Amino acid sequence: MLSRTASDLYWMSRYLERAENLARMLDVSYSLSLMPQDGRGDGLDELAMPLLITGTLDDYLERHGPLHAERMLHFFALDASNPGSIYCCLQAARSNAHAVRGRITADMWENINATWLEMRGIAEQGLGRYGISRFCEWVKERSHLFRGATFGTIMRGEAYRFIRLGTFIERADNTLRLLDARYEMLGEEIDELEERTARSYYQWSALLRALSSFEAFAEIYRGSPRTRKVAELLLLRPDVPRSLRACMEELNLMLAGLPGENGRPAQRLAAELDARLRYTSISEVLDEGLHAWLTDFILLVRQLGNTIHTSYLEVA
Fold this sequence. Notes:
It is a single chain. This protein is mainly α and 316 residues long. The chain folds into two domains: 1-154, no CATH class; 157-316, Four Helix Bundle (Hemerythrin (Met), subunit A) (Up-down Bundle). 76% of the residues lie in helices and 0% in strands. The protein contains 17 helices and no strands. The protein is globular and about 55 Å long.
């Protein structure tokens, strides 16, 4: 497969996954901002969380000034001049899909094209009339439909593998950043008393819901969400679809199935990271320090993404 084609497939799926992740992040932050703040502010700290996680706080402040709920929501959802907005992610995904129209199925193309057309209509209407929660649910629904069309209609060849690579490298990074941000918000030193507060419960529950893992947590563990249990679920459980372990297993599997010698560095790194997670316990993670461990792994996932790009996606 040509590097340009592989790159378009890879980034098409990365942008779609990114749009969904942004919608999840935005929906949870918006919901938490509406709750009583217990003397901790007026809810803007919660709405600023997506800016901090994605590293766009300085860009927002430069363009829009002080934090303002309505401006922040528009900046993340519908701002055509913000490359990190959901609007721009869906636009880029559609552009990539158009470039590889002959390598994806009709169902996939019709889904992503219809999503972009609807997105333009929502942008004209505005979030004030459409509703932020309704918008976030729509983004997630369109992403689910595209993945369903992909899984149900495309051949299990190289195109499928590059699409899956894009999805899971983006998902792994998002899971790490969301967990780190919520942990940092609750504080590095969380004692048993703090763990039992209502604020802690809603923060961890919001994170689990953002990653569609609340039901999995309730099925596996007893009691309220705590740092140890949530971290173990989202980092080391292979049966939770958005966990880091599940993402790395999928990345390792997809890379191992790609032919050629150029991909050996990416294959080796993915296998090393998969093995590291397979044989790491949550006690080891917490002994190292959760924030330090997450920061280290965020860099490793970025390194894997760069290695995939060098191995497969650079256009000669």
